[in-house]
Amino acid sequence: MLAKSLRIRALARGLCAGLTCLAHGVGVSSAQTGADLELERAILSTFEQINAVPRCSKDEARISAWLVEWAGARGLAVSSDAHRNVLITVPATAGWEDRPGVVLQAHMDMVCAKAEGSAHDFTRDPIPVIRDGDWVRATGTTLGADDGIGIALALTLVERATKPHPKLEVLITADEEKDMSGAAGLDPGLLTGTRYINLDSEDDATVTLGAAGGLHTDIELPLAMTPLAAEMTVFDLKVSGLLGGHSGLDIDKNRPNANILIAELLLGAFPFQLTGIEGGGVANAIATSAVAGIAVAAGDVAALERRVADFAADARVRYPAEAGMTLTLTRAANALQPAASAEASANAVRLLAAIPQGVTAWSEEFDGLPESSSNIGIVTSTDRALAIATFQRSFRADHLQALAQRIAAHARAAGATSIQRGSFPAWPPNTGTGLYRAVLASYSKLFGAPMATSVVHAGLECGYIAAKYPAMEIVSIGPTLENVHTSNERLKVSSLPKLWNLLQEVVQAP
Ligand SMILES: [Zn+2]
User: Fold this and answer.
1) Which residues surround ligand 1, an ion (CB under 5 A)?
2) Would you say 152 and 55 are in contact if contact means Cβ atoms under 8 Å apart?
3) Are the CB atoms for 247 and 391 separated by under 8 Å?
4) I need a labelling partner for 114 at 20 to 30 A (CA). Which of 178, 218, 399, 471 fits?
5) Is residue 176 flagged as an active site residue?
6) Buried b vs exposed e over 100-127: b needs ≥16 C-beta within 10 Å?
7) What is the pLDDT of residues 459-492, one digit of tens each?
8) Which domains does the chain have, with CATH numbers?
9) Ligand 1 centroid to 424 CA: how many Å?
């Protein structure tokens, strides 16, 4: 999670790049000590163990059990609740019992997304951790560093702390990526600590102090399919190879959504009949590909081909960063599919195109930060209906509701129904806490540079914690990650010892 704010990077590290370490064959800075390399190894080894346990959202039984076992094997008190959240309690160092306790929190589930053509089975296969210079990545799938690396950092601190610390509560929540049902179900009397460090941020030079709230609006449009007239020609219209990205963090980067591109292309065109439409894979990601089955009369085939070519050329101008964007029109293998009527098909794409996509309002407090946004994550059709999964985000609960109502109104106007689900509260920023000051002080003490502060247009469980524990001091930090929620996800290795040392310093700060 990365946000818009003024940042001053730790220059020291940049200057020393280019020296190669034999053991790892990576670019390491001469500033990196043997202790740092040892920490990298320890944290990555724990991360690899975590990556051997399948843990897509809602499939967390195995990872929850693995965490309970990990703690039990080390003689630590551990509990789990009905939501599969796990709490590991680490006693204070002798003499530190009177210090305020600290909570370290990460989430155990991950977004399971893979590149086209990948045969990876997320319900069974371990996710490899591939070294690539100063980064690690997977092969054609999400890496799971969001947020498996947060868990690995916390567990490595429990195992390897070299400084005294107060009582630690390591809270690993379930289902952050889908509905935040773990955080939502957390018992408000469970935690005893008064300082809370969330480890789900993605920039090692930034401390996060606030996050947007969100909710899902799911739409269902009846779309009856009947046999096609014999003279119709059926095509598969496909958009693929888009950058996509996180529907909160990347929503302000002018990234096209494949579901919208398909709708825009078909909007107001010649009569066509939909035989089916599929796009996107997860609600909180900008869709990278979508395909629509469309039938047109023989007389409109040339117009369709021209339209696709013109639209593709125009899209390349509108989205110059989308080097991989591909629009294809191919004759469908099965020309005998049932289809929706031309009227119902036009109504369906009109609805798709009418639903707000992107940033709908900008923050008045934080320059350049989206305040409210919406994304069409998943579009699917059956022989009876079209389902559209959308996700709204906002720092303001009233604006969030208004945006969802707007979408519900579009749905109603098209003859569709809609439901809201999975709402989670925003986390209001508070710059007045001792914990926040401790983070800034520790960072400049360790790295000789100021740390940036940010507020993010994405979901963090901290909103629930702030609502359940009003007195809790809360910050969010994390090592540098890129392209989360996509098969290009990668983790910067040298940011691991940096984050770990910062964490240890903050945990024991007065
Ligand atoms: Zn996360």
Assistant:
1) 146-147, 200
2) no
3) yes
4) 218
5) yes
6) ebbbbbbbbbbbbbbeeeeebebeeeeb
7) 899 999 999 999 999 999 999 999 988 899 999 9
8) 8-212+427-507 (3.40.630.10), 215-424 (3.30.70.360)
9) 14
